[in-house]
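Q: Sequence in, structure out?
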Amino acid sequence: MAQTLTNLLAHTIFSTKQRRPLLKAEIRPRLFSYMGGIVRDLSGKALIINGTPDHVHLLVSMPATISIADMMRIVKSKSSRWVREQFSSEGAFAWQAGYGAFKRALTDLTAALSRTTKRTAATRQWTRLFYLGQRFSFSEL
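A: Exactly. Output:
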């Protein structure tokens, strides 16, 4: 029986249009959960979703059935529409064109979690971390 097995971890980063600080603290947890659902609908796994008022980091286990370009196009378009619908006071919310995407090894996961937790705590911009779809604190790993 033929099958396709992959282990593709992608760290993507993208920002709000003109890097405007539109992702307020009350928006981020709901937005990150919504983005996780989009990734899940595309057969991926959102391992970490984190961000600041002007950008988002996603660590995603990519399925073999979709390219990173297609995944990012869908995540960004659906999430920007959702922000406009749910938080109409944000007006013309949009993501900046483009994104950064970097391959990660499974061994990088613990280090990435540590860096992300320390960085966000140090800058007092800690929002939410999601690990395999569940909220966690770093001490639980």
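Residues 8-135 form a domain with the Alpha-Beta Plaits fold (CATH 3.30.70.1290).
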